[in-house]
Amino acid sequence: MNPIAIRSLGRLAAILGALACASAPLRAQNLEPAKQKPPDEAHRFFDSLNVGLVAAEAGALLADGITTQYGLTHYGGREADPFARPFVDHGWTGMIAGGTLFISAEVAVRYLLHKKRHHRAERWLPTFVIAYGATGAVYNSVQIHKARQPFPR
Ligand SMILES: [Zn+2]
Question: Separation of 37 CA from ligand 1 center, angstroms?
Fold first, then answer.
């Protein structure tokens, strides 16, 4: 071996030795028995965020319901969602019953997710209900707006 290679090997050995010494305290820490962490503090199920999400769901479904009933009363037609249609066909009573069933079932699923410690999924699930209600309300509003336009000549 030439002297440069030997010197490089010496430096490499010195670096490895320094790293081994520097990591000794880390290895010592890893050998200690793992300290028991306190169980992570889970939030209460009906905390302010979850109550707010339920209110947002109810608001979105109410907006969908109001625009649906307005469109059906003034311009006719029928509910586009086949799952909601039986409830919508019974007017406000059916729609309130359907909305209550829908939100209750969704909150029950969220509670199960909460109990299984899937808190992120628990928080994301309502966004689908909110998006469903908001999309329906926007779609209905656009249809009502189009129906109010005078016929093109
Ligand atoms: Zn939770």
Answer: 19
- pLDDT bin (cut points 50, 70, 90) of residue 83 is very high
How far does residue 45's CA lie from ligand 1's centre (Å)? 6
Q: How many domains does the chain have?
A: 2
14 and 65 part of one domain: no
Q: Are residues 3 and 32 in the same domain?
A: yes
Q: For residue 149, what pLDDT is reported?
A: 84
Together in a domain, 23 and 61: no
Distance from residue 126's CA to the centre of ligand 1 (Å): 13
CB 135 within 8 A of CB 63: no
Distance from residue 52's CA to the centre of ligand 1 (Å): 14
Q: Is 153 part of a structural domain of the chain? A: no
> CB atoms < 10 A from the CB of 105, how many?
10
Residue 63: its pLDDT value, please? 97
Average pLDDT over the chain reads: 84
Measure 53 CA to ligand 1 centroid, in angstroms: 13
